[in-house]
Amino acid sequence: MDSPDPELLREDMLDGLEHALGGTPSDAVRQAMREVPREEFVAESPYANRTGEQGGTVVLAPATVARLIDTLDVESGDDVLVVGAGVGYTPAVLAELVGADRVHAIDIARGMVYEARANLSAAGYDAVLVDRGDGARGLPEYAPFDRVLVEAAAVEPPRALLDQLAPTGRLVMPLGRGAAQTLAVVEADDARGYEVVDECGEISLRPLLVEGEQAEAPVRNRTAREDAEFAQQGYFAKTGWEHEWIDWDDRLSGTDR
Are strands 145-150 and 180-189 parallel, antiparallel or unpaired? Predict the structure, then answer.
């Protein structure tokens, strides 16, 4: 039995975006997503409109990608930074919109950098630059950027990313904690640091990691010691270790005399 035609699957995916988004993506974003072979980036059910996991990272649903890029509002020739390269799909869609040599991506996980590079190359987007580093610090050597897209949440936009915006640039990212996140459009402001110029509804993405928080980061000596101490405390207490920790919390707060 022949495999389904990827182009037909792509059209089905695009037709389903209207229902998922509650509206249609812009013509430019729709055309860009039509051109990108998502099967080169996502191994399992690439055209299903759902969030997945691959290689230790979250693969955003196509509808989420469309929403983020529409909010970014890029123009041909813009220099774009994507914080969170992931599997490389979002940078590929942006490459269709602004030109591959205008897209820069950074990821804190070395393994994802290698995967994104390989996927982009297989799909024909070798000119997209993917580097490893702390996304909160951006890529100052390639700044300024007309647009910065952060595919992770934080309470406020990192100062380094604001500093790397062009004078008329914009940054798009989820702002907030946990599930209480808002997709925000941010501009740099000399007086207050930044200004949220638009809020584009609720969204829920993983928190932005900083150096040392990625999965392959070395274990701190203090963590190893704390784990050993924890293993000796309360695990086999008659009341259960949970109660032992509650008791210690009370003592530290001064409520248990």
Answer: unpaired
Strands 145-150 and 129-132: unpaired
Backbone angles phi, psi at 249, to 5 degrees: -60, -40
Per DSSP, 5 falls in state P
The C-alpha atoms of residue 189 and residue 163 are separated, in whole angstroms, by: 10
The confidence score (pLDDT) of residue 191 equals 67
Res 211: pLDDT: 58
Distance CA 84, CA 87 (A): 9
Residues of the chain falling short of pLDDT 50: 1, 221, 235-257
> What one-letter code names the amino acid at 236?
F
Decide if 86 contacts 57 (C-beta within 8 A). yes
Long-range contacts of 13-18 (CB under 8 A, 24+ apart): 13/38, 13/47, 13/48, 13/49, 13/62, 16/49, 16/63, 17/49, 17/62, 17/63, 17/66
Residue 7: what pLDDT? 87
Helices then strands, counting H and E runs in the chain, come out as: 8, 9
CA distance 128 to 139: 14
pLDDT of residue 251: 36
Query: Residue 234's pLDDT is what?
Result: 52
Structure tokens at 182: 């808002």
d(CA 57, CA 72): 22
Tell me the pLDDT tens digit for each residue of 32-45: 999 999 999 998 88
Give, as one character, the DSSP assignment of residue 154.
B
Look up residue 210 and give its two tokens: 């900083």
